[in-house]
Write a structure and sequence with these properties.
This protein is of the alpha/beta class. The protein has a single domain (about 20-265), classed as Vaccinia Virus protein VP39 (Rossmann fold, 3-Layer(aba) Sandwich), CATH 3.40.50. The chain has helices spanning about 20-25, 35-45, 50-70, 90-95, 110-120, 135-140, 145-150, 175-185, 200-215, 225; strands spanning about 75-80, 100-105, 125-130, 155-160, 190-195, 235, 240, 260-265. Strands 1, 2, 3, 4, 5, 6, 7 and 8 form an 8-stranded mixed β-sheet that branches. Strand 2, helix 5 (about 110-120) and strand 3 (about 125-130) form a beta-alpha-beta unit.
């Protein structure tokens, strides 16, 4: 898929770029189309390290999953899942705690096709996918599969990885995240990564322009704007930091080479 005759599943418009498919292209996947590759390449021209940054986001997800399982979390809500890239969040969590339950959320039909085929849960746990949009948090929180999968008397790990950049300020993403935070039980955790122009403003501005020229919304936010997403939740060490430096496995040679802020916070 995404090569040759550019065949697409029902509901997928191959003439309009989509963030999940562009991200797939950066990660070396094949589930993307010419329009996605064109935008992806334009953004790489602006930011040569774009593929590295996509990889650093994936590594952050893996570290967060391991750490939260270690803290007792057995339920994960991943909003803005994107096209599955192994190991997925549920694979990391269930490898450590087979009873872990994960609900993935995305609004791209191509993600649904792959989610059904690839997101196979352990026998003890559960892995579900729901089609919903972050702009409509009720559609996420009221979903029957989500309610059937989660026990809302127990804490949940909520992950918003490289997704909030797709909401313009006019969509009030801070309110959308607050609605999700408010629905989470006490002891839940929130993990976020978000692109920023704080480290390389000219490069990021060019990448944003490339996305805008393709009629995509892409918003880079500064550290203060990203911090707002966590509300009054308690930040885990080391706080809101460049994504590569959030509890890395080893020394990080260039801490600001990936232009993303990243952090995890706990609900009191």
């Amino acid at each position: 898929m995404g090569r040759g005759n550019e065949a697409a599943p029902p509901g997928v418009n191959i003439n309009v770029p989509h963030s999940a498919r562009i991200y797939d292209y950066w990660l070396g996947g094949k589930d993307n189309f010419a329009v996605d590759r064109a935008v992806g390449e334009a953004m790489i021209q602006a930011i040569p390290g774009m593929r590295y940054m996509a990889g650093e986001n994936r590594k952050f997800v893996h570290r967060v999953a391991r750490d939260l399982v270690g803290l007792g979390i057995r339920q994960f809500l991943d909003v803005g899942t994107g096209i599955p890239t192994s190991p997925n969040l549920h694979e990391v969590a269930q490898r450590l705690a087979p009873e872990s339950r994960v609900v993935y959320v995305d609004n791209d039909p191509i993600v649904l096709v792959h989610a059904r085929a690839l997101m196979i849960s352990s026998e003890q746990g559960r892995s579900e996918y729901i089609s919903a949009d972050l702009r409509d948090t009720e559609s996420i929180l009221d979903d029957k599969d989500l309610r059937d999968t989660f026990d809302f008397d127990e804490p949940i790990g909520l992950t918003l990885i490289a997704i909030l950049m797709l909401l313009a300020d006019a969509d009030d993403p801070w309110a959308r995240v607050a609605e999700l935070r408010d629905a989470m039980p006490s002891g839940s955790y929130l993990a976020i990564t978000h692109p920023t122009a704080d480290f390389a403003p000219d490069e990021v501005d060019q990448a944003v322009s490339a996305a805008t020229d393709a009629s995509m919304t892409l918003v880079a936010r500064d550290r203060a704007a990203v911090q707002r997403f966590f509300g009054d939740w308690q930040m885990l060490e080391p706080g809101l930091v460049p994504v590569s430096t959030w509890r890395p496995a080893g020394p990080v040679e260039k801490p600001e080479a990936a232009y993303y802020w990243a952090g995890v916070a706990r609900k009191p």
